[in-house]
Amino acid sequence: MSQHHLRSNDSAVTPVREPANWSPESWQQYPATQQPTYPDADELASALATLGSLPPLVTSWEILSLKKQLAEAQEGRRFLLQGGDCAESFDDCESGLISNRLKVLLQMSVVLVHGLRLPVVRVGRFAGQYAKPRSADEETRDGVSLPSYRGDLINGAPFDAASRRPDPNRMIKGHARSAMTMNFVRGLIDGGFADLHHPEYWNLGWVGHSPLAAEYQQMVESIGDAVRFMETLSGAAVHNINRVDFYTSHEALLLHYEQALSRQVPRQWGWFNLSTHFPWIGMRTAALDGAHMEYCRGIRNPIGLKVGPTVTPDQLLRVVEVLNPDNEPGRLTLIHRMGAGKIEDALAPLINAVNREGHRVLWCCDPMHGNTESTSVGVKTRRFENIRSELDSAFDIHAANGSRLGGVHLELTGEDVTECLGGARELTEADLGRAYRSTVDPRLNYEQSLEIAMLIVRKRGQVPVA
Ligand code: PEP
Ligand code: CO
């Protein structure tokens, strides 16, 4: 269908076409990397039928309101904060972990709102971040080869044949765990947990003894003053700042799962992925002619695209044209993840190409995935200094090239883990053994996360605002 549609709920009226020759399963005609091989086709079909009949996790109007907020971030009127675990596990669907992660994201957003004087778009990497790309399809130990662990949505981590067998029923369990996570987050937020009048609800144990505590407390107090001032001025409670919005995202990796949760809704054209607000395409599955690109081009959600240091300007432009042929504001977020040592050379040519073609995108920096390294004893870590340096460079390079960094994408946790080196507490290699809990990528702990938020504020104050 090539008919044009006008989106009614957007102030910038942009004609957006329904994608041609697309269906939720059309990705199956394209090379699909990073997918498990399910041993039993009937079992897969039956799990997908069940999944297809279960209720969605998010709604189309939430998705469209996020898209609008991302369009505003593109124009410099908001800042995107996207963060959470590298991978969730089914066992981590637990109240303390979920509320601590929410707390640290809320605290970071307070720092950003206060320092940047901009509303923040809050997006969690949670309620569905259960599938991971792997460098090899198989893992071999002591001469035994088994399928690689691909995340709880697909198989189990223990190295035995039963755990590693891809089990389609895990998708049903993953949907349920995502729903429980969403339900708890929504309940907390609706119940007043995110109320700006009560930032003390979000205190984690460290406040009081952290090197950053005084600075944070001061910001919280001054936000409290501002809220009270506005209430005095308007003579009414400031309802729209009592509550904050929270959106979810995950890597759209396991395409059967994404397909089963793709839905049409009344009074809207086209298809939405209702498993999350904001799916992203990972770096390993971003091939122009691949199945992930095919799937994502057809859904109406905002899409994130990870962009690594080997992507050429021409490749990027072709991908942008596939994912956002109508140059729709808010549709596409480019999440660059270059590494502190590579961003200087790699980023500017991409920015210039996108600018030259007039593509409207939101630029977001993931300073984590290009900075992963191993310690001398083989522990996966990231240095706070490199994370900080990549972020700093990102602000500078955008400003120097007539562009704007509009967001950050971080791997973090609300727990007191020791997975990344450095930060205000100067964690060393010897500290890594103390509380290293990630089974995948090393995360910023709550204190390092807050410090990053403070550094963003400081840095953005130094670059000319585009
Ligand atoms: C991730 O975000 O966890 C990830 C695997 O990132 P990337 O695709 O950028 O490597
Ligand atoms: Co990761």
**What is the domain total for the residues?**
1
**CATH overall fold name:** TIM Barrel
Query: Helices and strands: which structural class?
Result: alpha/beta
Given this structure, which CATH class is correct?
Alpha Beta
Largest sheet composition: 8 strands, parallel, barrel
* Strand order, sheet with most strands: 3-4-7-10-11-12-13-16
CATH superfamily: Aldolase class I
How many strand units?
16
Q: Do you know the CATH architecture? A: Alpha-Beta Barrel
| Strand content bin | 5-15%
Present as ligands are:
phosphoenolpyruvate, cobalt (II) ion
Poorly predicted runs are 1-13
Overall 3D geometry?
Answer: globular
Number of helices: 14
* Termini separation: 38 Å
Task: Give structural notes.
This protein has 466 residues and is of the alpha/beta class. The chain has helices at residues 41-53, 60-74, 95-116, 161-164, 169-190, 213-234, 239-242, 255-260, 291-297, 313-323, 343-356, 384-400, 429-432, 446-460; strands at 4-6, 15-17, 79-84, 120-125, 138-141, 144-147, 247-251, 262-263, 272-273, 278-281, 303-307, 332-336, 362-365, 372-374, 380-382, 405-411. It has a single domain (4-196, 243-462), classed as Aldolase class I (TIM Barrel, Alpha-Beta Barrel). It has 14 helices and 16 strands. It starts with a strand and ends in a 6-residue tail after the last helix. The strands form 5 sheets. The chain has an 8-stranded parallel beta barrel, surrounded by 5 helices. Strands 1-2 form a two-stranded antiparallel sheet. The chain is globular, with a radius of gyration of 22 Å. Mean pLDDT is 91; it is low at 1-13. The structure holds phosphoenolpyruvate and cobalt (II) ion. The site of phosphoenolpyruvate has 9 residues, from loops.
